[in-house]
Amino acid sequence: MMTRRLTQLLLGLAMYGISLAMFIRAGLGLDPWDVFHQGVSEKTGLSIGVVVIVVSFLVLLLWIPLRQMPGIGTLANAVLVGLFADLGLWLIPEFFHLGGQIALLAGAVALNGIASACYIGARLGPGARDGLMTGLVRRTGWSVRLVRTGIEVTVLAIGWLLGGSVGVGTVVYALAIGPLVQLLLPRFMVPEGKPDAKPGVAAGAVLTRPETSFQGAGWHRGQK
């Protein structure tokens, strides 16, 4: 079972990074955190993959006062998504025709949904950004919706000011990813109660950036 979980984790993170590259190549807008990553990339000259990795580890530092504990999936997420995003940007050409951009955006949303379900279903630890959000919820007592919205509006605004791409893709992602992951997640969720299951990793603790989009809206487990 652990082999399945690790394989599913790695495939999910690889697909997530590739889907990020597809969103960028579509040129129609990114999700809030990736608007921020792209904006930082534009200003620093670093590749977006490197920015994703650096931001992930900086956010992990904020876990310390929140007393959050990373899992295998947390550390893998911090490294692999950025690496595969850069690989995807190297492999995927830019699209300048609107039809191609729309098709690429649709493919990116679909792949991101599958990737998210794979990663969440592996139950091997939350992503850095989601751990920040859940830690703040636990420490402050504020609602998930309030904390998530506050974080995402902040990074979206900063990213946009830095030159990140905000557009129809941002809206499509926000509306589509939650229901899509909710639909796919049961197919990829590793059952609880297996001998190799780690007692410290509960289902509600395993969150990813896309999952929070629908949790904050109250579509799934009530929790990005």
UniProtKB/TrEMBL annotation:
<dbReference type="InterPro" id="IPR038750">
    <property type="entry name" value="YczE/YyaS-like"/>
</dbReference>
<keyword id="KW-0812">Transmembrane</keyword>
<dbReference type="Pfam" id="PF19700">
    <property type="entry name" value="DUF6198"/>
</dbReference>
<keyword id="KW-1133">Transmembrane helix</keyword>
<feature type="transmembrane region" description="Helical">
    <location>
        <begin position="98"/>
        <end position="122"/>
    </location>
</feature>
<feature type="transmembrane region" description="Helical">
    <location>
        <begin position="71"/>
        <end position="92"/>
    </location>
</feature>
<keyword id="KW-0472">Membrane</keyword>
<feature type="transmembrane region" description="Helical">
    <location>
        <begin position="45"/>
        <end position="64"/>
    </location>
</feature>
<protein>
    <recommendedName>
        <fullName>Membrane protein YczE</fullName>
    </recommendedName>
</protein>
